[in-house]
Every structure is written in C-alpha cells, then in structure tokens.
Design goal:
By secondary structure, this protein is of the alpha+beta class. Helix content is 29%, strand content 23%. The chain is built from twelve helices and 15 strands. The protein has helices at residues 6-11, 26-37, 41-45, 47-50, 62-75, 77-81, 138-143, 148-170, 217-225, 228-231, 240-246, 296-299; strands at residues 58-59, 83-87, 94-98, 119-123, 127-137, 200-203, 235-238, 258-259, 269-270, 273-277, 291-294, 300-305, 309-313, 320-333, 339-343. The strands form three sheets. It has a seven-stranded mixed β-sheet. Strands 1, 2, 5, 12, 13 and 14 form a six-stranded mixed β-sheet that branches. A two-stranded antiparallel ribbon has the order 3-4. The radius of gyration is 25 Å and the shape is globular. Residues 1-21 and 47-54 have low confidence and may be disordered.
Length: 347
Amino acid sequence: SLLETGDAKANRLPFGSTEIVGANSPEVKAYRRFIQTGDDSEIKSLAVSTGGGADGGYAVPKAIDAMIDRVALSQSPIRSIARVVQISTPDFHTLVANGRAASGWVSETAARPATTSPTFTDIKPPMGELYANIQATQQVLDDMFFNADAWLAEEIGERFAEQESASFISGSGTNQPSGFLAGTAPVATDDASRAFGTLQYVPTGAAGAWAASSPQDVLLTAMFKLKTAYRKDACWVMHPTVLQTVMGFKDSYGRYIFQPAMQAGAPATLWGYPVVEAEHAPIIAANSFSVAFGNFQRGYLIVDRVGTRVLRDPFSNKPYVGFYASKRTGGILTNTEAIKVLKFAVS
C-alpha cells in the first residue's frame, strides 16, 4: 500500500540500520531506553521478563540476545559446526559411552548369557566468563536513535566471537573452554586400541610441510580413518592459509580436489566434504596439527549459560558510558573417535 500509518513510520528503522526481531516489544523498548539514557525505571518494572539481578546489570532481552548469538555464530566457526547446549546451572555433566554393548547369534533354544556392556565417562565442560567493556560517549548514544541496541549487540557479538574462536580450538580449560586440540596430545594409534580422550593423528610425511609427492593422499587417509557413521556429517577445519595451499592440490586424474561454492549459502568442499575456515587454527609448522576432519556435532560440545548480562556505567570513565557485558560459556572434546587431525611431521 502507498499509505503508511503514523505508527508504522514511527517504528520504522533508519536506512542502513540493523533490524532486530521484536524491536517494538516492551522489553526491548525498555532496554533501549536503558542503554541510551540510563533510565531503568521501565526495565525494573519488567524484571520478571528481563531477569534483572541483585549483582547489578540487566539480562539482555531475548530478541537482542538472539541477535548477539547470530553475530557470534557467523564469526565463530567451531560454534557453527559443534553441538551447542544451553544450560541453567554451572554444574552440567554429560555421559559418553566408551564402546558398545555386545551381542550375538543363538539358536531358538540356546542359552542367552549376559553380554558385555559399555562403560560411561562423566564429562564436565570447563566454563569461563566472557566479557566485553564497550565505551561510547553519551552524545553518540543520543544520536543513534532507534538502533543503539543494535550497535551494542554487534559490538558484543564481535568481541565474544573473537574469544570463542580461539578457545574452542586451543583453550586451556582454565576459566575458559577446553579446545579440541587441548589436553592430551594426539597419537597415531587407531580407534580400537587408543585411550579414551585422545585424538588420532595422521602424519603428512614431512616435517612442518606437506609431502613432496602426492600431498593430497594424506587427506584421503585422514578421511578413511574416520568411521563411516561419523563421515556422514563431517567437515574439514583449517586456517585460511592452509586452505590456500590445499586449493591447488589435484587428484591422480588432474582434477582439483577443492571445489568452490557454486551458489550463495552453499559451502566449498574438499573431497566432497564442507570446508570451514578457522582463523585461530594452527598454521603449518613442525609437528603442528593444522588440519582437522571430523563430525564436530558428535565430537565437540559447547555449553552456554542462558543469558547475556549488561551493566551500564556512566561514572568510571567520563565522558564515556561503559557497557560491561558478560556471559558464561564452556566447551570440551567429547568423542575422540569423531575427529581426526593431520600432524605435519615425518611420522
């Protein structure tokens, strides 16, 4: 329609702004007023909905919190392929079965003796608190009009994604997630005899380099070291500079093994499996584990304590207004059969 009501015009976002789902809900309007002016009268009245706490700050409304998660998802590659669980308590555990229950064939009247059962390992993902302390002048906040909350969500998302990207790969597990390359160093032993909790590596055959002859073959070897059940949803993870080299590899028929995305939203593939670029993955060096192939939904778990909290501070750094945002996130390697890595070494 060519006609537009006054309410619709008033609620329309300025050109170039980021649209937020639910931008006109009472919670988001109250939160926006809190960001721009520090007036928390409305947000206090909605404490049940927004989750204000005695320790200071206010929980981000769900529409904006979802936007933060989307920004983090686009910039944190491991989050996009791992299993992600939201939790409401820091005391979260998951059980991983080591092996499978035994079975067998019997005749109609033969005895059915008890079969062996799998053992279970209790895993508790290490957690840490992500924080960002973002500064803006009050004049800038006044000039943002409708999208001050969108700006803050983008800033928080970018900072959280940067920290997550590194920790999900190599995080120490102390006050932060444990990365899938952290912990016990990978070994060359196959699944049947390798200790639980240890990844398997496939050597490239050269120290700090790809093999001089047929370097693509080690990628195939890593693929087929992964059990068929895990390969269905597997993907490659590597640093962009590593991928740049791999893009030039060809098979024995002279065909490139890397295929760029043919349409928007579709992933590039390597030997038919999606490739994920991770800027915090190790670059190639002697004994580095610079390429991973696996089913990260089965192999790596990310836990998010529900809710991002924001504390507005107009006093500590005048003339700036500080926004202290925090959330609790954890991560851990759960199934070490589901991920294989290349070791840039002779053996």
